[in-house]
Amino acid sequence: MTGPLLEVTDLRTQFHTDEGVVRAVDGVSFDIGRGETVCLVGESGSGKSVTSESITKLIPIPPGEIAGGSIRFDGMELTDLPESDLRDLRGSRIAHVFQNPQETLNPVYRVGRQIAETIRIHEDVGKEAARKRAVDLLDRVGIPDAAERVDDYPHEMSGGMKQRVVIAMALAGRPDLLIADEPTTALDVTIQAQILRLLNDLQAEFDMAILFVTHDLGVVAEVADRVVVMYAGRVMERADVYDLFENPGHPYTQALLACLPGRGDATTAIGGSLPSPTNPPDGCRFHPRCPHAIPDCKSGDQPPLHPVPDPDAVATGAGNPAGTGAGGPPGEPVRAAGPYDDTDGAEEGGWDEVREATVSGHVASCIYYRQGYDATTVRHDDAAADGGSTDQGASGAAGDEEGGGS
Ligand code: SF4
Questions:
Q1: How close is the Cα of 235 to the center of ligand 1, in Å?
Q2: DSSP 188-231
Q3: Would you say the CB of residue 236 lies under 6 angstroms from ligand 1?
Q4: Same domain? 217 vs 344
Q5: 383 CB less than 6 Å from ligand 1?
Q6: Tell me, what DSSP letter sits at residue 289?
Q7: Which of 264-268, 291-295, 354-358 has the largest mean confidence?
Q8: Are residue 136 and residue 190 in the same domain, yes or no?
């Protein structure tokens, strides 16, 4: 492999509305290698779908616009690509599967015809050859009696069958990258498991990369190689799936994981709601809901992504500054040996001097990971013991309202 298949760097996607500019995606970076599955995860409204749709400019332009950043696919810069070239790319090298197959399929055409038309848009083949390929694709995605079901109308199929047809259409162009946006959300759990298995099998067969968009960490555990956690248009944490579940570094990730059955209190929920997309709060965008917030979290910019220390590599009690899924309080942060240089004095104390230098490794956007940050003066448990004499006390109360979000 010569490099990532897809590299998204500092992507900014905005929508111009009567209420103001919605910065739906505000500086997002990640990459995907060939044959790899990367999950974008977060609550509804976190910007993950807009991120995925920005890749092939499926967002409505206007009111939307790609306001900045770079999207490189196999060496091609997609943000500069003319619409005609993008149209060729969609459905061939990059294919999308959406949540509701009913909305993707045309109800008045037989499914075989819809798949065959997709094939003929991208390949110079005759009707009969395209129909044969459609039957073959239906067979590959597990439709029984594919030679007969190819003449079904969508309404003659179950929800799971329809989603298999949509996946067959997506595979018709033999894509290098499949973007699957909540493809199993509308399905019951049994069918969901079948579709996830199917995608896994097809990925191995076609050597496809998959960008999987979901709010469901249970699905993430099933399919992901690496995970990008988004909140309010920003990346809060990036990690491989094992690190994310074993050592969640960001309080938002910890809160999401605590909502999973078997990991947290069964009644756990993340209290509060996403901030206004037109007027997000200063500082860390998660601070109004974060039980670990300190005064410094509430001003300036979003903390940059810093390496999350490996708890196996540090002394007991010092490995996980922002608290862990195991419920430990923040300890003293470890000066991480990462690719960041926060010591050049270019902007003393500012966040902006330290931008994302890499898209790999386990990183989180939390103040507790800033190099050299002296957490001993801002430990939230100390502040609470002081009777909430700092802003942290107020944040802690918000956390309590949330039922202990993390
Ligand atoms: S501790 Fe501060 S920077 Fe970290 S997630 Fe909470 S509010 Fe954000």
A1: 13
A2: -HHHHHHHHHHHHHHHHHHT-EEEEEES-HHHHHHH-SEEEEEE
A3: no
A4: no
A5: no
A6: G
A7: 291-295
A8: no
Sole residue written with tokens 């989180």: 364
pTM, entire model: 0.77
Quick: pLDDT tens for 63-108: 989 999 999 999 899 998 988 888 888 878 898 888 777 778 889 9
> 290 CB less than 6 Å from ligand 1?
yes
The best mutation among 234, 286, 379, 392 to test binding of ligand 1, ranked by most ligand atoms within 8 Å of the C-beta, falls on: 286
Same domain, 123 and 167: yes
Q: Domain range for residue 111?
A: 101-174
Shared domain check, 46 and 162: no
> Which of the listed residues 253, 282, 294 should we mutate to test ligand 1's pocket, taking the one with most ligand atoms within 8 A of CB?
294
- How far is it, in rounded angstroms, from Cα 300 to Cα 375? 18
Does 297 contact ligand 1 (Cβ within 6 A)? yes
- Averaged pLDDT of the chain: 77
CA distance linking residue 100 with residue 84, whole number of Å: 26
∠ CA 400-404-406, rounded to 5° = 140
How far, in Å, is the centroid of ligand 1 from the Cα of 250? 8
Residue 124 included in any domain: yes
**Statement to judge: residues 138 and 181 lie in one domain:** no
